[in-house]
């Protein structure tokens, strides 16, 4: 039951954030699927006690791979699928909490949040670096194949 | 003849810079902007072009000629429809389906060409972002409705302040203050349970989480200037939201 709700809500939050960021109508569903998969990877990894940072890393890899798939299928830039799908993972909450804690005088909690922001954003960026390598390899292989076909 | 050549070069530069400006304003990655600009120039017959893109300004020139132009970028938001349109137009231009003049014309009119969702739908969507994320971040059903409503109000405050006043960072501050105040009132009158859950949900459509992550990606891709500029903007947005909420806490709790 809990799994179902998480699946549905991460899908919904990605689609609705897609509406806020003006994603083309016919791509909303693909964004939602990418976001739900990313969050489910994050959530299950975190529930296995693997740590939130590692879970973010794996979630970003999942999102990156699905974005590559959808961007090739629909012939659209990857960013369109990346940005809305990331919304459940990105460290927006801790970023504001850091400032709030510091303004209210709780420096320890504030710096705790800042470290969390840096680690989370770093983990997601690292995850995308990995999928970037996959994309480049894919491009090289496919382009070589296409060039080969032309010659023969 | 000489004059003709000059206007053509001018048109290529104009088109490339316009495409780059639209993409940077709409939240595209730096490498994609540079790539698109160079590709348009190449397809228009200028093989040796140099583009230098930062989050706050673009430079474009042709190697071994005396043409260089700049364009500044003052607005940065996320509008993925525009990224998709520029991408499509650049593809069509590469396939010779449209001419350079048509491409230029279409880019000039992009605000009329790009469909947007209606404001009421955007506000509704912002409310749904708030309550669904609040729940999967570990909230409970008791706060669900309050977060939905406060999220909608917070986003509308940000949207209309930006529309009417257009002062940087002030819209986020005012929206955060409203969210904090309403969350405090909701808990005080026993309409909801946990003020922290409501706030964290309701600020989700505003917080710069995506901007922070994108700035890290820019830096890792080697675009140090853009990454730092985007990070600075994100820090100030987070700052205005945090201060907005903190003022409510100081005043009332």
From TrEMBL, chain A:
<feature type="transmembrane region" description="Helical">
    <location>
        <begin position="111"/>
        <end position="134"/>
    </location>
</feature>
<dbReference type="Pfam" id="PF12821">
    <property type="entry name" value="ThrE_2"/>
</dbReference>
<keyword id="KW-0472">Membrane</keyword>
<keyword id="KW-1133">Transmembrane helix</keyword>
<keyword id="KW-0812">Transmembrane</keyword>
<feature type="domain" description="Threonine/Serine exporter ThrE">
    <location>
        <begin position="7"/>
        <end position="132"/>
    </location>
</feature>
<dbReference type="InterPro" id="IPR050539">
    <property type="entry name" value="ThrE_Dicarb/AminoAcid_Exp"/>
</dbReference>
<feature type="transmembrane region" description="Helical">
    <location>
        <begin position="50"/>
        <end position="69"/>
    </location>
</feature>
<comment type="similarity">
    <text>Belongs to the ThrE exporter (TC 2.A.79) family.</text>
</comment>
<dbReference type="GO" id="GO:0015744">
    <property type="term" value="P:succinate transport"/>
</dbReference>
<keyword id="KW-1003">Cell membrane</keyword>
<dbReference type="InterPro" id="IPR024528">
    <property type="entry name" value="ThrE_2"/>
</dbReference>
<keyword id="KW-0997">Cell inner membrane</keyword>
<protein>
    <recommendedName>
        <fullName>Threonine/Serine exporter ThrE domain-containing protein</fullName>
    </recommendedName>
</protein>
<dbReference type="GO" id="GO:0005886">
    <property type="term" value="C:plasma membrane"/>
</dbReference>
């Amino acid at each position: 039951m809990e799994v179902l709700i998480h699946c549905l809500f991460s899908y919904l939050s990605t689609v609705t954030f897609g509406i806020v960021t003006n994603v083309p109508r016919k791509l909303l569903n693909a964004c939602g699927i990418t976001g739900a998969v990313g969050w489910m990877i994050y959530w299950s990894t975190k529930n296995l006690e693997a740590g939130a940072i590692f879970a973010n890393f794996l979630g970003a890899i999942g999102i990156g791979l699905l974005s590559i798939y959808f961007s090739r299928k629909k012939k659209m830039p990857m960013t369109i699928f990346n940005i809305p799908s990331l919304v459940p993972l990105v460290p927006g909450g801790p970023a504001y909490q850091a400032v709030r804690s510091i303004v209210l005088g709780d420096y320890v909690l504030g710096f705790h949040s800042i470290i969390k922001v840096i680690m989370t954003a770093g983990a997601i960026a690292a995850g995308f670096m990995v999928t970037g390598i996959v994309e480049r390899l894919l491009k090289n292989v496919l382009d070589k194949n296409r060039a080969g076909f032309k010659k023969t | 003849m000489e004059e003709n050549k000059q206007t053509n070069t001018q048109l290529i530069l104009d088109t490339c810079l316009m495409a780059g400006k639209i993409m940077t304003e709409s939240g595209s990655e730096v490498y994609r902007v540079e790539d698109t600009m160079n590709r348009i120039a190449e397809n228009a017959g200028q093989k040796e072009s140099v583009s230098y893109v930062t989050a706050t300004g673009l430079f474009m020139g042709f190697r071994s000629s005396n043409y260089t132009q700049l364009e500044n970028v003052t607005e940065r938001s996320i509008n993925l429809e525009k990224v998709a349109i520029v991408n499509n137009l650049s593809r069509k231009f590469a396939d010779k389906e449209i001419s350079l003049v048509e491409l230029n014309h279409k880019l000039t009119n992009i605000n009329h060409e790009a469909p947007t969702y209606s404001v009421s739908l955007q506000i509704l969507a912002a409310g749904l972002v708030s309550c669904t994320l609040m729940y999967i971040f570990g909230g409970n059903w008791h706060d669900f409705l309050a977060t939905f409503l406060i999220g909608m109000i917070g986003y509308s405050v940000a949207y209309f302040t930006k529309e009417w006043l257009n002062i940087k960072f002030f819209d986020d501050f005012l929206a955060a203050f409203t969210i904090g105040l309403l969350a405090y009132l909701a808990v005080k009158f026993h309409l909801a349970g946990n003020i922290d859950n409501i706030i964290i949900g309701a600020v989700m459509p505003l917080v710069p989480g995506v901007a922070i992550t994108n700035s890290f990606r820019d830096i890792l891709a080697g675009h140090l200037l853009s990454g730092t500029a985007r990070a600075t903007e994100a820090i100030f947005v987070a700052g205005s939201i945090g201060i907005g909420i903190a003022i409510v806490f100081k005043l009332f709790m």
